[in-house]
Amino acid sequence: MRYQNISPLLITLFLFPRLAFSFDAQVHMVNFPQEQEAKVHLAVDLIKKVVTSPEFKERIISHTFEGKKGFVDSKGLTNEEIYQLIIDGSETLKPGKNGRMDVELELYEHPSKTIGYTYPHTSRIWMNTKYFNKYSPVQVADNLFHEWLHKLGFDHAIKYTKSRNYSVPYAIGYLVEELATKYYR
Q: With bands split at pLDDT 50, 70 and 90, how would you rate the model's confidence at 49?
């Protein structure tokens, strides 16, 4: 009871990692018309708002799969370690805690069902204009964050399985989309 008069802001400052407040993004765009660049900037702003929110941290830390705390395809990391890796911004190709999402984006056009993709040996993420053009910034934020989680070393099943939506890239990408809707008007 002696702490009941402490403001929620002070509690958040105490419980939140320092890098969480300054999470940033460095995004280089290739083959993007100005209108599409604006959509990416909106998506990145939404991502930064989501990642710096206490709800994002709480939802990742409390995530469960089949009644157990954790994610599918988590590289053996705990939920807390996954959250910290995100906050640290330590990509596989750019290890180190810079608190930033570092990516290069390129638009491509293909009639496939693939929304976007990346490879482990590059910082580039390819985004299919078939989806990008009709997606809202909230949906772009989901896809961008999903692909960036691959840059942190997380993977998922290539073909659909019942558990794939609980993998780190899918589950957290969906979470980003859900929380971003609160910030997008």
A: very high
**45-48 own/partner pairs: CB under 8 Å, 24+ apart:** 46/137, 46/138, 46/141, 46/176, 46/180, 46/183, 46/184, 47/101, 47/141, 47/144, 47/145, 47/176, 47/180, 48/23, 48/24
At residue 173, the 3 state secondary structure works out as: helix
- In this predicted model, what pLDDT tens digit does every residue of 73-94 receive, in sequence order? 999 999 999 999 999 999 999 9
User: Which strand (E) or helix (H) includes residue 106?
Assistant: strand 100-108
Alpha helices in the chain (DSSP H): 8-15, 18-21, 34-51, 54-61, 79-88, 129-132, 137-151, 168-180
Sign of CA dihedral 100, 102, 108, 113: negative
What is d(CA 29, CA 12) in angstroms, rounded to the nearest whole number? 34
Cα angle at 56 between 146 and 130, to 5 degrees?
A: 30
The pLDDT of residue 22: 80
pLDDT digits (tens, 9 = 90+) for 125-140: 999 999 999 999 999 9
> Helix, strand, coil shares of the chain as percentages rounded to 5?
45, 15, 40
